[in-house]
Amino acid sequence: MSINIREIKSFFYSQYFSDGIRICIGILLPSLLLMQFDKFDLGLTLSLGALCICVIDTPGPVSHKRNAMAAGNLCLFLVAVITGFARLNVFTLGFEITFFAFLFSMFTVYGNRAASVGTCSLLIMIFMMDKALAAPEVLGYSATILAGGVWYMIFSLLFFGIRPYRAAQQALGENVTDIARFLRIKADFYLSDTDIDENYRKLVSKQIQVSQHQDAVRELLFKSRIMARESTAPSRILVLTFVDLVDIYEQIMATHYDYNHIREKFKDTGVLTEIARIIHNMADELDDIAYIVLSNTRRRHLTDFTIELEKLKVKIDSIGKNNQETSNLVLKKILVNLRSLSEGINNIYKYYSSKAAESLNDPKGDVEYTAFVSHQDFAPHIFFDNFTLASGAFKHALRVALVCLVGFITAKLVSLGHHSYWVLLTIIVILKPGFSLSKQRNYQRLIGTIGGGVIGIAILTFIPNATAQFIFLIIFMMGAYSFQRLNYVVSVIFMTPYVLILFKFLGVGLLNVAQERILDTIIGSTIALVASYLIFPTWEFEQIQETLRDVIVANINYLVTIAESISGKITSITTYKLARKEVYVKSANLSAMFERMTSEPKSKQRKIKEVHKFVVLNHILSSYIATIASAQSKKEIPVAHPEAMKLIKKSITVLNDTGQKLQAPNIEFNIGKIPPVNPEVQKPVAQAEDALLKEQLGFINKISYDIAKITDNILTD
């Protein structure tokens, strides 16, 4: 029960709830203030502008928000003016809807932030298409909408200016929670009753969330002026926590072995159950750290793992003594990784102890953190280079344009009431570049609208008190915007009664509005789903070659970086961490692609089993490389034998050959001659470490060949 309470508290500290409050206040405040002066209609128009601009107010550096919202306000005014005049003739309105739907959908080529500017522009077009305005009124009304958008931009920027570190804290805390869940999934591999294949599915799914949150934290920490240029105590704590957190994630990735083998080998010792228990306890500690970061509090370190790990060491040592035929070297490596995890957790706790911040050193050191964030190019040629059916963005834009035209005609012919724009609004919200995303959003929209409609009707029917209804309006509004990125179904369930209660206050009939909204949602959903299947459909398998190529190239670079370090070459920390980051990001992209494939129609799921096997093999490969990288960073690996380096070169050659089949460039790897090591001089510990290194490299070599075979199967028609 306490865990559930902690999760609830964490939600109220999270960026999701913070976003909900900020958006709710930014939209409602103009209407509530002007209502006191009998200017409610003016307040509603201002709120409409704020409603459109809030779409752009997604997590990220404040400078990016400011620039995007400024561009959004410009588009907001221009589109409002054009739509205000275009709607005077049904044919010009139909042409405008088609053209703007294509134009603003193409903004996806410039990334998610630009895409949100396009969505904002389409929203005001949809809201304006049924607004009965005479020609002389259009400019004044559009200027009022612009004022509402500018108000929201200023309000949002002031909101972040008051607490400049809060957004980074929230994103970081949520990333810690994701890694804790990832760690629990890894722990389950050591339990004999866990299905390994199913656990891999859970693991790669969770890896997507970890990667997305890590990218969000990088953006906030290393693209924000206050983080990048100022060395204050809060910024040092946040950066140090994130750096250690990424290292902890690598340690978790490094705790990967042949689980079937170690289960069979140590099933009667009970040691694997003990390892799983300790890992679960470490995940609990990470959850506690997440709460500390989110709530900005200081708490006591709950568990000292020193005693636990000493007991585990005794047990591992006894296994080696009692059974000479069973090598316990793998268990010792697991113990080393667990100690590293414990050390990382202890370090983060120290950052949040009282008076710790003053003694912290500048976290930058030898690492250039700005290299870890992507930089969006807004060159005009990118837009026009995508004018080809080979571009997914171009096909998506064409699909949106055609479907919006069909939706507009349908709304004019069969709409029940005066809110025909709901059909187009549903299409814009549901229609995504890929079929699987459109299908998922379609299902969520329908369920949420019907469920929310029932709730809204029940409240308005059985709770006639206007004050109580207004309180529900505020609650539903905050819920809708708090869950819009966290859980879309819940967001729509909140949004539908919020809209119904709002229309009731505006004097529109309850049952008519509910019936109209549900019917228009069904019409829009049906059109969007059929269109995503029939009109320029984009199936995940069509992009699979590029995704596989990226992940193989990332793993080769990662392996080359580690191999150079093992061979004695000096490798910068930045180079190593960039290679590691690329592997995690590209692997998460691969996992996300596979998840989308499973949501597509069976007839379009080509080579689904082979792709799943590739996803698992890629995870195993990157985990084995991370295992070696972790040991190398602690100087546990001596300069490798020539035999070990031959294994590395062989693996790189195999992966290069596979990459070339996917049109990837060949990545060179050359090292000098390594003198042979005299085994009589080498220390026994070093001999054991070298033996384990060669064993791990043997696994990497085997996995590389397996990846080559499965890639051939995927590419074969």
From TrEMBL:
<keyword id="KW-1133">Transmembrane helix</keyword>
<feature type="transmembrane region" description="Helical">
    <location>
        <begin position="450"/>
        <end position="476"/>
    </location>
</feature>
<feature type="domain" description="Integral membrane protein YccS N-terminal">
    <location>
        <begin position="72"/>
        <end position="340"/>
    </location>
</feature>
<feature type="transmembrane region" description="Helical">
    <location>
        <begin position="421"/>
        <end position="438"/>
    </location>
</feature>
<feature type="transmembrane region" description="Helical">
    <location>
        <begin position="518"/>
        <end position="536"/>
    </location>
</feature>
<feature type="transmembrane region" description="Helical">
    <location>
        <begin position="397"/>
        <end position="415"/>
    </location>
</feature>
<dbReference type="InterPro" id="IPR049453">
    <property type="entry name" value="Memb_transporter_dom"/>
</dbReference>
<keyword id="KW-0472">Membrane</keyword>
<feature type="transmembrane region" description="Helical">
    <location>
        <begin position="488"/>
        <end position="511"/>
    </location>
</feature>
<protein>
    <submittedName>
        <fullName>FUSC family membrane protein</fullName>
    </submittedName>
</protein>
<dbReference type="Pfam" id="PF13515">
    <property type="entry name" value="FUSC_2"/>
</dbReference>
<feature type="transmembrane region" description="Helical">
    <location>
        <begin position="12"/>
        <end position="34"/>
    </location>
</feature>
<dbReference type="InterPro" id="IPR032692">
    <property type="entry name" value="YccS_N"/>
</dbReference>
<keyword id="KW-0812">Transmembrane</keyword>
<dbReference type="InterPro" id="IPR017972">
    <property type="entry name" value="Cyt_P450_CS"/>
</dbReference>
<feature type="transmembrane region" description="Helical">
    <location>
        <begin position="141"/>
        <end position="162"/>
    </location>
</feature>
<feature type="transmembrane region" description="Helical">
    <location>
        <begin position="68"/>
        <end position="86"/>
    </location>
</feature>
<feature type="transmembrane region" description="Helical">
    <location>
        <begin position="92"/>
        <end position="110"/>
    </location>
</feature>
<feature type="domain" description="Integral membrane bound transporter">
    <location>
        <begin position="412"/>
        <end position="530"/>
    </location>
</feature>
<dbReference type="Pfam" id="PF12805">
    <property type="entry name" value="FUSC-like"/>
</dbReference>
